[in-house]
Each structure stands twice: as structure tokens, then as C-alpha cells.
Amino acid sequence: MSGMRNMWQLSGQILRKQKPSVITDYSYFVNDLAKGRKPSPLRELMRMLASASSNVIFLAEGLPHSDTHPFNEARFDLKDGTSITLSGKLLTSALQYGPTEGHPDLLQKLRQFQERFHNPPGFDDRDVIATVGGQDGLCKTIELCMDFGDPVIVPSPTYSGVLAMMRPYRPKFVTAAEDKYGFCPYKLREAINKYWSHGNSVKAPKLLYLNPTASNPSGTVMPIERKKEIYEIACENNLLILEDDPYYFLHFDNSEPQSFLSLDEEGRVVRFDSFSKVFSSGLRLGFMTGPRPLVQAIEYHMQASVLHTSSLSQIIALQLLNQLGWDGFIKYMKKIRQFYMERRNHMSEVASKHLQDRAEWTVPDGGMFLWIKVKGVLDVYEMVMSRGVHTKGVMFVPGHAFMPDPTKPCPYIRASYSLASYEDMDKGFARLAELIDEEQHHQAQR
Amino acid sequence: MFHRSPPQRFHSEKMENSTGYSMDYSKYMNEVGKSRHPAVLRVMESMYIGIPEGCVEFAAGKVDPEIFPFESISVKLKDGNSFCLEGNDLMNAVQYQNSAGYPPLRKQLKEMVRHFHKPPYDAETILISGHQDGVCKTLEMMLEKGKSVFVADPTYASGIEMMRPYQPAYYTIREDADGIIPELLIEALERSKKDCGGDPKKMGNLLYIVPNGSNPSGTVIPTKRKKEIYKIACDYDLLILEDDPYFFHNYQEEDSISFLSLDTERRVIRIEGLSKLMTPGFRIGMATGPLPIIEKMEWHMQVSVGHLSSISMMVIHKTLEKWGLEGFNKQVAYVREVYRKRRDLALASAEKYLKGLVKYNIPRAGMFIWMEVIGVEDILDMVLKRAAPKGVMVVPGLTFFVPREGQDPPKNCFRLSYSYVKMEDIDRSHSSPPLDIDIQEPMRMIKVSKCDYPRSIASASESRHYEYRNRYIVDFCNDAILSSSDHLFSPFDDLSCKSKGKLVIALDNVPSEARVDGEKLSVHRDGKSQRDWQFCKQRHRHEVTIGRTQ
Questions:
Q1: Which GO terms fall under molecular function for this chain's record (chain B) (predicted)?
Q2: Least-confidence region, from A104-113, A163-172, A383-392, B393-402
Q3: Would B124 disulfide with which of A199, B277, B280, B294, CB 3.0-4.6 Å?
């Protein structure tokens, strides 16, 4: 084929004002495994099937015939009284194999979504694809870039899922503690310098992971000024920023936060969005936005593994988005935000009432968790896991789960306010107060 | 927390099997596979066993389903059955689930595997995101650069793509009408042993096989031969990755069996799915095998897909509940008949039109016919360039052969699928063999035709419905990569004028290699071809601009 270029380079000359440091060659960031991946010829054929003129007879793709699908109709009744009915051709789309990157109409919608909420610079050079939950996009990006023993930059505490994704590669975690606005830039710089000062021939970190809106577990929302500073650090150190943002709409402010994607002049940000906290966590529908060469490599991986995310989920989400429209969507998210805010307020009150001096916490600016530091107790593991559950009858998550090094003693616990009833919150925190009292007593005696 | 050792359940890489010796599965895995442990939160969840009554929970990051917009989900089946998901069922459909699968569905499918295959030990079953993901995750757990892996020749193309990044040492085993030949398997194993110089680290232990309805060749390995192959696997310490999506699409008189049913030594990892039986879009499959391997797959799923789509799982669960085993068998019989008829029709018209031109075996299962063209050495050009304008598309056989040194794989084969095409078209396609067309145009061609009225286009996949709001339809020929456009932003009549007219075309997907800036194009319109056009730029994946060169 004429003109085949190294797929890691962006193709096309986009005429716009660019800083000279825009990344054009992403091959530095990807590992050898990913470089060896090629597009699946059968999946590329699937594309041809979808786009060929109707007089071409396809004897190529092993598509099961829709006669063999046992379903006739599926109707989704919604709480607002409307309903979505899938039948005929629409149902067939929901039941049949689809393109790896996602149903084309949904992709168009998602692209519009990103443009509306983030308006990323150089959007033409970015692709948006549907993934099996935001998490699969993130996991595949890590599998794309990481090599055994690589250093990787994460905040402390951070989402336990991403630690689990990285651990099989035995990474060296370069961490910096968060403050009430998230990752602290000067602490981050310190951590990076400390890492480099350990030796001359250490590997350079390539990835910076963060969860900037309502970070799990700490609930911090990173303001835009800080994001700009962190972006500078990423540029200085030639890092990719993995912006994991499933709680983007679950902040408690009046306006949407500005994302890293919206600042991304150099093409460093790979962003992961999710519908899990929006329409349903059962859908397993998320989408990732990133520089074309990286997203394409992940598509090739998906072609070889999951093929695509559930067609049914895609069609439902598409119908919901179409029905709501943008204004409807924003109103819908406002309701959800209100829901969580009320719960957060209630749990904060209850925590203040029962815990008082026994612990300290910052009221979260978004999300569904309270990140509590127990005073006077060095390590809460046994307190939470055995005495808490079995003696007192209250269940939290010990903070160890969110630390890059879970073997160190940790005084934090995470409490979720998304599901418990108000009555249970009162009961639970009363029990927690007793638990802490007893634990402090034990510690004093030792 | 992990200075306390995790519960015994998570360190089960050693296992007692029914003959009494223990097997260490970590020796089969690569570094990443060995290092994979369950996510800490999941370990904790499992530690919350024996939770006392009245325990208040703040641990799970679950979302209150109250905020989700769904009230109920009603499904009607073609056989007249129907069900409704509401209350607790609805909650399960919209909520996070266990990575191994929604427990009642997992139980149903585990029982199904037990019923049809009767594994000789208590094999573990989990749900996976389509059977292909199970194969992929097993390979990602085990393959290493330079380590040998044993595959059939030809073998499933996507399987090759999964293996390719790992650059293993491929050892291929030819097939006859009954599948892979056991003597050749032994030969390949001996060769591999020699090549590794007896180093057990380099010697691979994985046999990847599609034993019933091999894709692409359609062979089914008879029971006697399966037993032979299993014995060889035991002798040479192989694991068998049994990829079996066509188990039920068996057109023979007698039923075929699976390797799982013979697996006394716990060597088989069986991957199957509901895609070819019920719905491929839901992405539901099952992986069955020894606990240490299935667990690793589950842990990998925990951090990647999380779990399968809950709605899909609930719908399938309810459907299987309605059907029971009887209903499921009915569906299987129906599906088998549908495909058998198609296979017979395809074979009849192949006999009618392609006699003397191609060689093929009669497929005993699956959805494909594997054909070898007589007298032509390389059919790649024919398939890619000449077949589509002639109106037929097949898969060139090269994609089904693993890369190898020395002798080249045969280049004159192709795979033909009879699963999807309209019945009447099967005959039509065979009657116009593309063997004698010669395309003169050296350039890529796009074809433009005027559309006089707004109409809906149902594409060949029947999955999209586009209203034409503008007046023109653009087809890219020769490469058949771009679809008919439904947005034309500038007047196409520029074609007739000599000025530098530009045309912006919005399309569904432009693979990045599809066009190169500055590449010359010929634009074919109303029977005439104009050769002074070129690609100008690609705005993003869905839009290209073409303009005149002068």
C-alpha cells in the first residue's frame, strides 16, 4: 500500500497554530508488545461489510444470521414515563457483532459530547472509542505502555483498581501525597526528583495517573490552576497523563470542572470517561479519548480480545442520549449531583456528631466517599476488618487498599455514602465511634 | 495488609488432581501472569465472610440504583415467551456485578457445561466477555517471546493476532479431513524439544486448537483422535486451549465431544460462548478449566472489563430460565438446521459453478468453507482488488497462517462464509467467479452518483439506516473501505468546473492507512472518470477533503 508510514506518527498536516513541542511520535511511550500488534484482518473486514455498497455479496465475515437470535423485542420503561423500544433493525444492532470502536452513531454522539464539555485543542488528531467501562480503556492503556519494572507516577491515596492493573508489572511507584485539592505540584516535583536522585541508569517514568474529579477515595476536586501546573510538570518530564474521570459530573460545584483534556496542547492526555455513574454501572460502557496512534493501538488490542463492548449497552445509551438531548442530560446530571450532595451532607453531619475528636476528614467536593483519618491509631487494619465487622457490626474499607504500598501501617478508612440509609449512617457511625474508642484504649495499654 | 498472607484460596497455583499428584500451574505462565493477584478490594470483599446480622455497610462503592433512569425492562422472545425485569431483577441488571459473572447465570452456564461435557473433575467456570476474550487472556497469561506454541495449520486468524505481539516460536501441525494429525503433532513436539536444546523454560506447553468446526477448515476431530491427542498432551506436558464456539453447529450424524470431557489430568482450558447460538452482541462466553488458571483470568477481568454487561447477563439468565434445558436444546437444534441448510446450499452451488476451479473439503461443523484455487499460485490480488467490483467478498487465506520462516504458506486459499449472506445471493455469488477480471485503473477510484430522492439505505449489515439529506452518494471502489456518504457539504457540481473545487466527505470510518495526503485519485462520475483529484486532508476519523490537483 503506498504511503504506509510508521503508525505511531500522526498523519495529516493540520494547519493551526502549534507549539513546537506537540508530540508527533508516540513510539517512545509504547512497549514492544504493543508495537508488535497488527490490526485483525477479520475485524477490518467487518468494517468493509458495514460500508460496502449493497450489491457486494459478503461471504467473508462469520456473522451469525439474525434469524438465529431468539429475541423479538426489548422495551425499557423509564422513570420519567417514557420508554425505549428496541425491535426490528434497531434490535438487530443491539444483538449483532459491531465495530470494535463502537457503534458509529454512538461514536458521533460521544465526539460531540467531548467537544461540548472539553473542546480539546487539536481534536482532529484525537480519536474517541467506546470501551467496556472506563476501566478497560485504562487497563489497556497501561498494558500498552508499561514494561516490567517500569516507574509510574500515582497519587497517594489512589484508586485501588489502577494499582491492581499495574501490579503484575511490578512497577516502581513514584508517589506524592494529596492535599485537599488533590496532587500537590511541589510535592510531585520533589517525588520525581527523589526518584531520579536514586541512580543514573534508572528508567524514565512515562505515565502519570490521576483521578482529578472527586478522586477515589479522597473526594478531592482539582482546580484548574493546579491542573495547569501539573500539566507543566508532565511536559517537563515527557509524561502521558492518564485522566481517569468517571465522577466528572459528580462534583458538587455549580459548573463543570475544566479537564486536563481541555488544556492538552501537546497531545499528552488520554482521558477515560464512563457512563457507570450516569446511566447504569451494569452497562459496562465507557469511552476513551486520546491521540490517534495510542487509541488505534488499543483498538487493535480490543479487536483481539473483547471485540467490542456489549451492543445492547451501546444502543441503550445512544437512545437515552438522543432522547435527553444536551439540555436534558445536564438537567439529569444535576439531579444525580443533588442526590449525592444530600447524602454527603448527611454523612458529614453524622460523622461530626459521633466522631468529634476521634478522627479528622475533609468534606469531599464530589463523589461518593468520605476519607477519614483515625486519630491515635497507627494502623486500622485489624480494627476495621475483624473487630469492626465481626464485633461491632460495621463495615468500612481500610485505607491500605488505596496505598501503593499496602504493607505500611495506615490510619485511614473509606466510607461510602452512596447506598446506606440515613438510619444506617447514624447507627454505623455510632458503632465506629465506639470502635475507635476501644482501639485507642488498646493502643494506650500496649 | 499483605504482610499477612492472603487466604489460601488465592494461592492455589498448586492443586491436587484426581490421580493424586499435584500440578504446579505457575510454570506455564509468563512473568505478568505469575505476578497477577486479585485486586485488594476484591480480596477484602471475600474476607467479609460470616458477616453478622445487622452489620451496617459502608464498604462497597456501589451506586444506589434509585438514581438510574430505568423502571423496568420487558423482553419478548421469538418463541412467544416473555419476561419482565423489575424490582430486584432490575436492580441486578443495572448494578455492578461479580467479575466471574452474575451468580445465577454463572450457575446456569456451569450446569450447562457439566451437562454437555461432564468434566471428570470439579472444573471452575467463569463468564467472560465473549469467547475470544477468554482465548486472549489465556494467551496473555502464558505466551513469551521465543517460547514455543503449537497451532493447527491453518488456524483462526484472530488467534494469530493475539499471539503475534508475543513473538512466540510457532510450531504448526497440518490437518487432514479429520483435523490435526497426531503424528505430526508428535513430530512438532520433538522438533521443539530439539530446538530448545532441552531447556524446559523455552519449551512451550500450549496447544491452541479449535477442535469442532475448525475455523477456517470446518473439520471436526473424531473422538478416537481426540483421545490420541489428549494422551500426547499428557506425555509432553501440554495444556490444551480448546476454543470451541461451534460445538453445537455440528452437521454430522454423531455428536462430537470436547477435550474437557476427557480431561482427567486437568490440562484443558475450554472456551466457548453464546455468540453463535444466541446473540453475539451481548458478549457472553464461558471459560472452564483448572482453578489456578481460571482464577488468573478472573483477576485480569477484575481490572479490565470489570464484569460483563449486567443487563445482557440478566436477559440471558431469564431467557435460559424460561427455556430450561429443553428450550435450550430446541434453540440449538434450530440454529443447527439453519446453518446446515445454508451449508448444503453453498456446497450445491459451489459444485455447480466452481467445479474444476477449486478444491475443498465438506465442512462438518461451523460456518465456513475453506477453498483452494487450482492452478493459481497467489489469489491475494484477485480477492482484494477484483472480487469486490465483481460483487463478492471472501477472506484471503493468508490471514489464517501463522508467520513462519523458510517455506511460505500456501497463497491460493480463501475462506468463504455461508452464515450471513442471503440465501439467493449464495448462488449468485458463486456464478460470477472473479477469476478473469482485469482492472486497468491503477489509482484508487471513488464513484459518485446522483441520488434523485431522499431514501433510506440499509447497508449489508442491516444495522444502519441512513436518510440521505443531500443529493449525492459517494462510493469508494477498489478498496471498499469507505461508506456511502450522508453529508456532502459543498456542491458536487464543482466537478464539472475547472476551478479548485473541494469536496468534504463525511464517512463512518476512515482507517488511517486508507488515504494519504496528496495521493492522486480518480473520481468516477456518470460513467466518466476524472483523474485530477487528490486527497487534501483528513479532519478526523470521519471526514476527508478531496480537491482538484490543478
A1: kynurenine-oxoglutarate transaminase activity; pyridoxal phosphate binding
A2: B393-402
A3: B294
Mean pLDDT, range B359-370, rounded to an integer: 84
Give the whole-angstrom CA distance, residue B391 versus residue B516: 26
B307–A contact, CB cutoff 8 A: yes
Note the ipTM here: 0.85
Asked if the model's pLDDT at residue A59 lies above 80, the reply is: no
B418 touches chain A (CB under 8 A): yes
Answer whether A368's CB lies under 8 Å from A387's CB.
no
Give SS3 for B256: coil
C-alpha cell at B6: 492472603
pLDDT of residue A54: 57
Residue found under cell 470439579: B122
| B281 contacts A94? CB cut-off 8 A | yes
**Digit-coded pLDDT (tens) for B20-43:** 345 788 888 888 888 888 887 777
How far does B219 lie from chain A, in Å, by closest CA? 16
User: Hey, which residues does A151 pair with through a beta bridge?
Assistant: A172
Q: State pLDDT tens for residues B281-321.
A: 888 999 999 999 999 999 999 888 888 889 899 999 999 99
In this prediction, residue A188 has a pLDDT band, given cuts at 50, 70 and 90, of very high
* Interface membership of B98 toward A (CB under 8 Å): no
List chain A residues with CB under 8 Å of B417.
58-63
Q: Mean pLDDT over all residues of chain B?
A: 74
3-class SS of residue B342: helix
Residue B545 near chain A (CB below 8 Å): no
The pLDDT of A359-376, averaged and rounded, is 93
- Eight-class DSSP state of A50: H
A212 Cβ contact list (under 8 Å, min separation 6): A182, A221, A222, A227, A243, A245, A257, A259, A260
Q: Is A56–B457 a contact, with Cβ atoms under 8 angstroms apart?
A: no
Angle between helix B423-431 and helix B310-353 axes, rounded to 10 deg: 40
Which one of B52, B165, B394 has the shortest CB-CB distance to A393?
B52
Nearest to B131 by CA among B166, B167, B156, B103: B156
- Test B32 with A148 for CB contact under 8 angstroms: yes
| Interchain proximity A75–B70, CB inside 8 Å | no
- Helix (H) / strand (E) element for A177: namely strand A172-179
DSSP states of A329-381 as a string?
HHHHHHHHHHHHHHHHHHHHHHHHHHHGGGEEEPPPSBSSEEEEEETT-S--H
Alpha-carbon gap, residue A154 to A173, rounded angstroms:
7
Considering CB atoms only, which of A12, A309, A390 is closest to B52? A390
- The single residue listed with the C-alpha cell 479487536 is A303
Single-letter residue type at A70: P
Q: Is the pLDDT of residue B12 over 50?
A: no
**pLDDT in the model for residue B313:** 92
Residues of chain B in contact with residue A136, where contact means CB-CB under 8 angstroms, are: 304-306
Cβ atoms A124, A267 nearer than 8 A? no
Phi-psi region for residue A36, left (φ > 0), alpha (ψ -120 to 50) or beta?
alpha
B94 in contact with A, Cβ within 8 Å: yes
Angle at B506 (CA atoms; ends B503, B510), nearest 5 degrees: 110
pLDDT 10s digits, B89-125: 888 888 888 888 899 999 999 999 999 999 999 999 9
Q: In this model, does residue B471 exceed pLDDT 50? A: no
